[in-house]
Description:
By secondary structure, the protein is mainly alpha-helical. It has helices at about 1-10, 15-25, 25-30, 35-45, 70, 75-95, 105-120; strands spanning about 125-130, 135. Strands 1-2 form a two-stranded antiparallel ribbon.
Amino acid sequence: QQQRLIEMIRQGQVKEALEFVQEELPPLCEDNASFLSELESTLALLAFENLPQGEFSDNLEPDGNGAPPELRVLLAPLQRHKTAAELNAAILSSQAQEKESKLPMLLKMLIWAQDQLSHHARFPRVSSLVSARTEPPPPAPDPLDDDDLPLGSSSVS
């Protein structure tokens, strides 16, 4: 709800933001004192003009007419990411799943398994975790290559 209020304030929808606060948020503040503190900080943004409007407004430096850095942080992209992470965790929790995604651990396991397997076999490796691009296996060693023979041995009789 805080992020919704922040977006209304960012877009200059003061009347809508105040109506939203009056109608939707009182029950939440009664149950959670820390939410009331966050709400007060968010509403303090209404006192300032020239709030950043862009999608990537991460300039936290004070500019004479704008909000101080401790309030401008609410308008930064990091706040949206924080809200998204909290929402994702709540959805996963409501579905009786772990709050953290299993993907990062699975990718680490893939890297480890590839490293272990590379000592014993040739195989196509995943070279990019982002695009899932693979690279072909390295060429098989030449059985007649003198460099692979033990010392004192020679492939030429």
